[in-house]
Amino acid sequence: MKTKLFVTLFVVFMVGLLAACAQQADDALVVATDATFPPFEFIDEDTKAIVGFDIDLMDAIAERAGLNITYQNVGWDPLLAGMADCQYDMAISAMTITEERAKAFSFSDPYINAGQIVIVAIGNDTITGPGDLVGATIGAQIGTTGAMEADAIQDSVLKIYDTYEFAFLDLANGQIDAVIADYPTAVAFVNQNAGQLKVVGDVFTDENYGIAFCLGNADLIAQVNTALAELQAEGLIEQLVGEWYAEAE
After folding, report:
1. 234: three-class secondary structure by DSSP
2. C-beta of residue 170 within 8 angstroms of C-beta of residue 227
């Protein structure tokens, strides 16, 4: 009798525990990211986990603000569309704050400035900056500010890629003349392809990255901004910059 009672109580306990775990998982805020932007977010080849500057920052914010979060790796276009449709609670993905995007979803306060820069093959001495891109074939990832800048250059041919990885691969193979990308992303890819690629000229736009939110989520935005401001004051951004990317040589 006692055995049956114990078994019954154990089953009830386990059902309750599983239900609590399921409820806890359901309560997690979904943070979307396109893990193709090293050093900000990318897949660790050994652990297969999403890692990077943005992930460390978002984890620190969540811990400081007491938020339960889970990451969802999605492509760049679905990420933007999903945020506009409130499929995700937040997104952190080296995302530049723009007026157009701010109409579809909200942003946190800026956390880093990362303007656009030109990348070319190591042996290219003709292109030294954006002023030399007239008539050139330029690669950029779809939906990025790099693509917008490339498209605005006179007589240039914009070649769109799903990820910057393929754009830099084509650049290394001589299929395109240059790539325009966010400076930190450019540095990361150049460092990974030493002897093949180089950045040229100076950063030529003034851009700020922000965390995206579903429109109307003022309470969550306030929580994140408060935590972000505290972490910035404590020097976390500088620490992450030192850990995740260095100046291209």
Report:
1. coil
2. no
Encode pLDDT of 54-99 as tens digits. Answer: 999 999 999 999 999 999 999 999 999 999 999 999 999 999 999 9
- In Å, what is the CA distance from 50 to each residue of 44, 92, 231? 6, 12, 21
From residue 55, alpha-carbon distances to 18, 32, 116, 137, 163 in Å are: 28, 11, 22, 33, 19
Q: Which domains are present in the chain?
A: 28-112+208-244 (3.40.190.10), 115-200 (3.40.190.10)
CA distance 193 to 172: 9
d(Cα 212, Cα 106) in Å, to the nearest integer?
Answer: 6
Q: Quick check: 115 and 207 in contact, CB under 8 A?
A: yes
- Name the nearest CA neighbour of 92 among 104, 78, 79, 77: 79
Q: Are 162 and 149 in contact (CB under 8 A)?
A: no
User: CA angle at residue 100 from 67 to 159, to 5 degrees?
Assistant: 105
